[in-house]
Amino acid sequence: MKKMGLKSILVCAAAVSVLLTAGCASQSVERVSADTVMDLSGYWNDTDVRIVADSIVSDCVNAPAISNYIRTNNKMPVVIVGSFRNDSDEHLDTSILVKKFETALINSGKVDFVASSAERGDIRAEREEQQEWASESTAKRLANETGADFMLIGSVKTIVDQADKTSTRTYWVYAELIDIESNRKLWIGENSEIKKVIKRSSVRM
Questions:
Q1: Which of 79, 60, 51, 61 is nearest to 175 (CA)?
Q2: Is there a contact between 80 and 116 (Cβ–Cβ < 8 Å)?
Q3: Do the domain assignments include residue 25?
Q4: CA dist., res. 66 & res. 77, Å (int)
Q5: Which residues does UniProt assign to the signal peptide (predicted)?
Q6: Low-confidence ranges of the chain (pLDDT < 70)
Q7: The CATH number of the domain where 173 resides is what?
């Protein structure tokens, strides 16, 4: 009985120890401004997206091709953002970059914009339904879409250099403005401002 009692005490003590350890574990959350620059891993992050998109779009909308189009046609060109390939050595969600480009282009006030190919399916389905269910006065016409004049496409690449525990990561983002009718490249821009030095500690916890 004494042996069983001692065993029970040891089991209880171990259980209490586990509970106390779990109770001591804590999590800290700090809310920061959305434009706060934070580099935790050294990889591509939201700050990089913002810097690159603002820089490239600013160069694009001020390119001679845009001003020439406006002067010749007396209207702003209609632009659509196509695909941006991830040619880097890490996983990047380029759809975030595409949306940032769309936002910057629209807010520039120098181009008109149309829905992307991914968005047009839902819009066309809605228009089809309106032909059957909406009143004649409010149903939107078929085959009356605004065609885009130019498409912005590009890619993200990385250049990595490493020696011992120190590495550098340079992100190179390029964009091209294409005339959709003629396939002519009207403008090419790039941003290679994002360069990070990462020093890894040799001490492992």
A1: 60
A2: yes
A3: no
A4: 7
A5: 1-22
A6: 1-25, 34, 202-205
A7: 3.40.50
Decide: 138 and 102 in contact? Cβ < 8 Å: no
- Collect all residues with Cβ–Cβ distance below 8 Å to 170 and sequence separation of at least 6: 158, 159, 160, 192, 194, 195, 196
Kindly report the number of other CB atoms within 10 A of residue 133's CB atom: 8
Domain membership flag for residue 73? yes
Tokens found for residue 23:
């109770």
Q: What are 84-105's pLDDT values in tens digits?
A: 999 999 998 999 999 999 999 9
Range of the domain at 192: 40-199
Give the chain's domain count.
Answer: 1
Is residue 21 included in any domain, yes or no? no
Torsion region of 23: left, alpha or beta (phi above 0 gives left; psi -120 to 50 gives alpha): alpha
Give the tokens for residue 53.
């998109």
- The single-letter code of the amino acid at 132 is E
User: pLDDT tens, 159-188?
Assistant: 999 888 899 999 999 999 999 999 999 999
Tokens of 158: 């990385």
Which tokens go with 127?
A: 């228009």
Q: In this structure, is residue 53 part of a structural domain?
A: yes
